[in-house]
Specification:
The complex is a heterodimer of chains A (113) and B (115). Helix content of chain A is 0%, strand content 57%. In chain A, the strands form two sheets. In chain A, strands 2, 4, 5, 6, 9, 10 and 11 form a seven-stranded mixed sheet that branches. A four-stranded antiparallel sheet of chain A has the order 1-3-8-7, with no helix packed on it. In chain A, strand 4 and strand 5 form a beta hairpin. Chain A has no helices and eleven strands. By secondary structure, chain B is mainly β. Classes of the chains: A mainly beta (113), B mainly beta (115). At the A-B interface, strand 5, strand 9 and strand 10 of A face strand 4, strand 5, strand 9 and strand 10 of B.
């Protein structure tokens, strides 16, 4: 299994909703990441988990709450989002060493209305 | 302050010819440089990487060159194929401290290969 699986693929939510994005990998990677990508922009790092512990938070607003229940799963809990949070949310995983960088999922296209 | 820059938003090439995508960086605290390819509605796909201690890495039709003195790297695709049409992102991986393992992406270059 060489994939990172993200669900759902598309999500529309209101500004008062609570929703969660899910990410799963079975490659034995011990680092997992959340990136946000707006149209015509590069992916921007949000969070890094290393050995299931949060190691980097790129000053992300608290309405985004990450969770890493185990080494294969990564969640992103969403609450009280704003329309400007609409974007493609990408999950990735990697070995902590090595040259291949990350393996990305296909992303969740989030629209906040 | 953007540490990884791709100054060409787009590149158009004829099928069979060479595509050259360029990337510049401003920080020396990177241990690997990587190229990713991205189709619409998909996540980026790893293409090829190069260690900061190397100057060339080749994998099939893809070759990456690193010029450390100029802080410049390039991706060569030979021969270019229509299926190569996508957005190409250059990325640099942090070598240590709080940036260890962190990928910083350039703005991307849209490559179009015409039949």
């Amino acid at each position: 299994d060489t994939e990172v699986t993200q669900t759902p693929k598309h999500l529309v939510m209101g500004m008062t909703n609570k929703k969660s994005l899910k990410c799963e990998q079975h490659m034995g990677h011990r680092a997992m990441y959340w990136y946000k990508q707006k149209a015509k922009k590069p992916p921007e790092l949000m969070f890094v988990y290393s050995y299931e512990k949060l190691s980097i938070n790129e000053s992300v607003p608290s309405r985004f709450s990450p969770e890493c229940p185990n080494s294969s799963l990564l969640n992103l809990h969403l609450h009280a989002l704003q329309p400007e949070d609409s974007a493609l949310y990408l999950c990735a995983s990697s070995h902590l060493q090595g040259a291949r960088g990350y393996t990305f999922g296909s992303g969740t296209r989030l629209t906040v209305v | 302050d953007q540490q990884v820059k791709q100054n060409s938003p787009s590149l158009s090439v004829q099928e069979g010819r060479i595509s050259i995508l360029n990337c510049d960086y401003t920080n020396s605290m990177f241990d690997y440089f990587l190229w990713y390819k991205k189709y619409p509605a998909e996540g980026p796909t790893f293409l090829i990487s190069i260690s900061s201690i190397k100057d060339k890495n080749e994998d099939g039709r893809f070759t990456v060159f690193l010029n450390k003195s100029a802080k410049h790297l390039s991706l060569h695709i030979v021969p270019s194929q229509p299926g190569d049409s996508a957005v190409y992102f250059c990325a640099a991986r942090g070598a240590g401290g709080t940036s260890y393992g962190k990928l910083t992406f350039g703005q991307g270059t849209i490559l179009t290969v015409h039949p």
